[in-house]
Design brief:
- The complex is a heterodimer.
- Chain A is of the alpha/beta class.
- Chain A has helices spanning about 10-35, 35-40, 55-70, 85-100, 115-125, 155-170, 185-200, 220-230, 245-255, 270-280, 290-305, 315-320, 330-345, and strands spanning about 45-50, 75-80, 105, 130, 150-155, 175-180, 205-215, 235-240, 265, 285-290, 320-325, 325-330.
- Chain A contains 13 helices and 12 strands.
- In chain A, strands 2-1-3-4-5-11 form a 6-stranded parallel beta sheet, sandwiched between helices. Chain A has a 6-stranded mixed beta sheet with strand order 7-6-8-9-10-12, with helices on both faces.
- In chain A, α4 (about 85-100) packs parallel to α5 (about 115-125) and α6 (about 155-170) crosses α7.
- By secondary structure, chain B is mainly alpha-helical.
- Chain B is built from 15 helices and 4 strands.
- Chain B has a two-stranded antiparallel sheet with strand order 1-4. In chain B, strands 2-3 form a two-stranded antiparallel ribbon.
- Classes of the chains: A alpha/beta, B mainly alpha.
Amino acid sequence: MNSSNHGPGQSIRRRTFIRQTAAFAAGSAALTMLPRRGLAASTPTVVNSIRSLSNPYHATWNQGGQAFAKSVGAEYVTLVTEGDSEKGIADIRAMLEKTGGNMVLNVDPNDSPDARPIVESVVKAGAYVVTQWNKPADLHPWDFNPNYVAHISFDGVRYGHDTADALVKAIGGKGGIVALGGILSNTPAIERKAGLQQVLDANPEVKLLDFQVANWKPTEAHDIVSAWLTRFGDQIKGIWAANDDMGSGALEALRAENLAGKIPITGIDGIKIAVEAVKAGEFAATVSWDPYWQGGMGLSIAYAAKTGKFDPTKEPKSHREFYGTGALITKENADEFYKTHMATEPTVDWNDLWGRVTGQIRQA
Amino acid sequence: MESPAGKRPDNASLKRTELNSRSSVERKQLSKRILARVRPFAPLLALIVLSLLIGAVNPRFFEFRNIVRLASSAAIPMVLALGANFVIILGSVDLSVEGVMAIGSVVISLLVQNDRNTNAFGLWGPILAVFAGAGIGLLNGCVHVSFRIPSFMVSLGVWFVALGLATFILGGTTVRVVDPAFRGLALHYFLGFPLAVWLALAALALCWIIERFTTVGRYMYAIGGGEDLAILSGIPVSRVKVIIFTLAGALYAIGGMLAAAQLGQAQALIGNGRLFSAITAVVVGGTALSGGEGGVLNTLIGVLIISTLANGMVLVGISPYVQQAVQGILIIVAVALTLDRTRMKIVK
């Protein structure tokens, strides 16, 4: 078996194999490109560019995009960066090339600096774009009229504050809490922690026993919470987490010690598991950004600008760079939220472009 | 192994003419021999010193409750590192850990009671999940051996294929595992420890037996020590490699299952970050990345060092802003202590 590996026959076979595979791949790629050309001329293609389809957040985002595309009868394309900025930008450029600029783009840039080359490419091609979450602070939609329609983000300070407030209420206004943060250099992690700090300052009887970074991951949060139980024992009255994934890891660490539901947890993002935990009384609160809305509304705003429904240059700055509205989900509204957003496909009025604007984004 | 006492007269007779320098040379050799004796235990010593340091600052470290928590946080890294360990002894690298974990967790979560379908296959769930992982490992091994592509590249590709498959199956969402028997792996205790810890120990024992008492185990070291020599000696190199990669795949799938049991959910990204910690644990335990050295018990110590470090950082209260740096320094120190680098000619 081993000696035959060195024979010349083996290497030739392998080369042929590779050649055939390459030919097949090229052929099928060419085939898929053909029929789409014709469609592009009429309705603009609607394109979502997101990090990945492997996480629930962006998967829901993608559903929203599909729903919007269906509502206007446009062709829908999803591009994924897989955490690779170069790939993200290159895919968008290829799409602009393919559609000849007849497209609208809703993008969650992989990293803040990516937004600039993306916007510049879109402007050059004459397409329309809405960015979300990440962009450099000095890149503004009104500097790229009319193609850069809007930037949408969410106020991390405010919702870090709101969930911390719900946690303090759940523990009766006093006692020790511990906090799990996201990747230290991430803007949302920094903002949400600042919101937590505001609540701590306003409630001197609540003591932050420790703050640890679990890098947004449930597994890391799980092990940190276990170690906290050793260090602080029953001093821990509540756990604040900067996102739901870490909160769910914390919850399972508590469950392993029969403490689930006895120590309230809060998270942020509004993923299904967290909403279910709120319903079950194991989470005190979470905040939903409604990624379904983000995935569809970003496209809807760009599409309305592209098709002349409104003129971006005439909109106020608070419509060009705005904070969307997150929904604080607590025991009171969890059942209702679950019914309308999780058990069934949400219904969003895609024509209500500015319904969730809660003010212009703070300038750093 | 010769005893130092038995060797001394021999050295002395050789150097009888250099009476003056004899004692110093002898002392140097003696200390070298002692070091050579102690070195295999360096990771264990590092673990003990680390534990004592943490225990000195926070005595709660040694409480039984914390030992249980430590053990249960080490269970998943242990199972993963066992697989990585065998492949590294072969002199290869397997990067597919996170992809196979994803498949393992997805398969198990869809076969036991969950919130997505009405399946409840009971014991068949874990069996099929392990087979799925072993199948991916088999693919890894076969492609590596028959197309003669470096294991590094093959397993990188297989990682993404497996991750893509898991993403496709779940459509990017999360499945909740509600099967009480399966969740019991993480939530039920036997003799004070969660079942997952016992499962990890069983995997450890099995791997130790394979390493010590089977032909595959012996061949594995021969191949890692020098593949050309192994081929010339008539060792079925390809077959052994395929077997080891298959075994590693099965172990990663078990790791994925344990993660699903621990978190009560499965998603494609469940293994996120596990590859690096598995390989770190193997190397910190004293297994050389060049192959042919180390073993299962080294890896156990390596995993315990990494887990103790993570647990200790929180217990001691080291600021998250400097934790990564502390972790990095300790890993370098542990590895520097572990291997005798004076005999190495080239370091890559």
